[in-house]
Amino acid sequence: MPNRYTGEMVIEVGGEVYPLLYDWRALALVQSEVSKEQQAMALNGDDIDSLAKLVAAGVEGLTYEDVLSASPPLMITIQAVDIALTAAYYGPNGPPEEIENPKRPQGMISSWLLRLLTGLVSRLQSSGS
Question: Domain residues for 84?
């Protein structure tokens, strides 16, 4: 990969090698032309039309029609696009690991709930008398 930070990859389309890079202009084009659902389907190999749009957005000088006509190898193209998009969104370290929500001690929740319910019952009893 020529630039680990930006996620620049190289991709072969029609026998020529091109840099594949998603800078902010390319990301804006991706967001305007390919929905999140279509992106996910493209990266699973289920939407070749959207994959061609993703490649065209990330390769300066190639059009959607150029990509469709050249029909680059599917799995290699998916891998390059996935790596480049991930780096564009998250940088060289990739997406952060999921952090579990810290658990509250049960006693705190129970005592809070008990106070709330006791207060409601007291108000209901006082308004009914």
Answer: 9-90
